Amino acid sequence: MSLIKLKSYNTNDTIAAIATFPSKSALGVIKISGKKAIGIVHEIFIPRRKKDIRKAKTYTLHYGWITAHGAKRRAHSVKNNTSFAHRPSPIGIIDEVLISVMRKPYSYTCEDVVEISSHGGTAALSKILELVLKEGARLAKPGEFTYRAFLNGRIDLLQAEGIRNIVGANSDKALNAAVSQLKGESLKKFEEVKKAIKNVFLLTEADINFPEDDIKIKFGSIEREIKKINSKLEDILEADKEAKIIKDGLKCVICGKTNAGKSTLFNCLLREERVIVSEIPGTTRDAIEEIINIKGVPLRIYDTAGILTPRDLIEKKALEKSSKIFNEADLIMLVLDGSIALSKDDLFLLNKIEGLRNKKSMPAGSNPKSVIIVINKSDLKQRLNLKNISHIKGFKVKLSALKNEGIDSLEQAVFNTAAKFSSQRQDLIFMNAYQGEILKEAYKDVQEAEKNLSNCQEIDLVNMSLRNALDNLGKLTGEVFCEELLESIFSDFCIGK
Q1: Is residue 124 within 8 Å of residue 118, measured between CB atoms?
Q2: Which of 276, 270, 265, 266 is nearest to 292 (CA)?
Q3: Within this chain, do residues 310 and 331 fall inside the same structural domain, yes or no?
Q4: What distance in Å separates the CA atoms of residue 156 and residue 449, rounded to the nearest whole number?
Q5: Angle, nearest 10°, between helix axes 157-168 and 483-490?
Q6: Are residues 408 and 259 part of one domain?
């Protein structure tokens, strides 16, 4: 995804875009927003009833035709029993349409908005859009309508993210959570945290700015408040983590030493030969990603390089990429070769998994890893001593990826494991990656404030950390301007939204 620069969002322009997917369908919609929106439509629209669209009230529908340049001037009136009706000459008619008028500020963007509903199909929609652009509109950038809604105060950034996730929702739970965010429920949680931080921040401000007033700060009381704030931020991080799983599916990495059969297993789960399989060690030198569905569970699955000791720059980069995916995964499938004893590389991976599963060593917002041990090559004589892996918690599945035997057992293990990630909470929060990083920064700021208070009771340092936390939380709601964040959010929208 390439980021759209904010300077390209010229808010003085009238913008237009096809708001529906351009394909063979019953209906298609073109959305226009800006000062010239109604005037532009007036130039290309002939109403069925003799009425000036420029005088139309807000939230009204108007039936008629979109015509090419000059056709409107050739339209003639025909008297019927009830009213005068405009009928354009057959020459120049583009389509029969309904026009929706929404005057500012009672529209999605808080500007004058007109939506043209025509018959579906690429030719009609493209021609109507072409006429609208010729009359003075500009083609909208991705997310530009929602960006204007944000700038004009109709929504905050969390609500904007809620809108994006309503569009992308692939389950009832994801849709319900996104709608809740659009209604402003997520903002309430952030406002509550910001208020708590601000109360402590003001106490530190008073101590710094008015030392002569002999204001006595109760450090114990402040420390307790900061701990409560940390707890609230951890809860928001957890809500974001669980929302990502509902939206994107579990992130699952297949790992193991070279020639353990990872790529063969990957192909089995996909039910196609997605990656090259070879007896030559280290065939897979890059992480390969696919999205699959196992018993109704969406899984973002990665086949990673089995190289643990790089021999060149390419293998070094492959190892770095695999390690990053490994650390971020929700579910780890460790593939062991059941036909041989545990090797040094196997033990290294087992120890690494144990370290990642220790919740105390994990960053906030992360879940302890779930692990499935896959004992591959069950079609060969077994030499792996199961006692050596008995201490690893999780499902252990014997299978032969080569013979496609035991895959059902693995899929059942994935399904059972996924149940642990099924969130029952209703207050999920959707954020994009950039927003997530800013939230983690705010959490670190509050942790830093707590650390400074505990170690040296330096109020200046506590004050600075709390100020940084407030700034970061302000960026998330849009109160504090952050160009990079705005670009990351609205660039991810489709054109027409």
Answers
A1: yes
A2: 270
A3: yes
A4: 28
A5: 20
A6: yes
Rounded CA gap, 37 and 133, in Å?
Answer: 11
Please give the Cα distance from 54 to 133 (Å, whole number).
Answer: 18
**In terms of domains, do 312 and 353 share one?**
yes
Whether 358 is in a domain gets the answer yes
The pLDDT value given to residue 79: 39
What's the CATH number where 300 sits? 3.40.50.300
Closest CA to 239 of 193, 298, 197: 193
Sign of the torsion formed by the C-alpha atoms of 333, 336, 337 and 343: positive
Inter-residue contact 319 to 287 (CB < 8 Å):
no
Cis upstream peptide for 105 (omega within 30°): yes
Statement to judge: residues 22 and 84 lie in one domain: yes
Handedness of CA 282, 286, 290, 296 (dihedral sign): positive
Q: Are residues 296 and 380 in the same domain?
A: yes
In whole angstroms, give the CA distance from residue 203 to residue 208: 9
Q: Can you tell me the distance from the alpha carbon of 162 to that of 427, in angstroms, rounded to the nearest whole number?
A: 12
**Burial class of residue 162, CB neighbours in 10 A (0-12, 13-18, 19+):** buried
Domain coverage including residue 61: 6-147
Structure confidence at residue 305 (pLDDT)? 67
- 134, 147 Cβ separation under 8 angstroms: no
Are residue 56 and residue 108 in the same domain, yes or no? Answer: yes
- Please provide the DSSP assignment of 179-198 as one string: HHHHTTHHHHHHHHHHHHHH
Residue 468 lies inside a defined structural domain of this protein? yes
List, in sequence order, every residue forming a beta bridge with 291; answer none if it has no partner. 300
Please check whether residue 312 lies inside any domain of the structure: yes
Are residues 457 and 393 located together in one domain of the fold?
Answer: no
Alpha-carbon span 297 to 372, nearest angstrom: 16
Instruction: Return the sign of the alpha-carbon dihedral for residues 119, 121, 127, 129.
Output: positive
The pTM of this model reads 0.72
- Domain assignment present for residue 194? The answer is yes
Joined tokens for residue 119: 């018959």
Show the low-confidence residues of the chain (pLDDT under 70): 1-4, 69-91, 210-217, 274-287, 296, 305-312, 314-315, 318, 357-368, 422-424, 456-457
**Domain check: are 220 and 77 in the same one?**
no
User: Measured between alpha carbons, how far is 291 from 286 in angstroms, rounded to an integer?
Assistant: 17
The count of domains in the chain is 3
48-54's contacts with Cβ under 8 Å and 24+ in sequence apart are 48/85, 48/86, 49/83, 49/84, 49/85, 49/86, 50/77, 50/83, 50/84, 50/85, 50/86, 53/99, 53/101
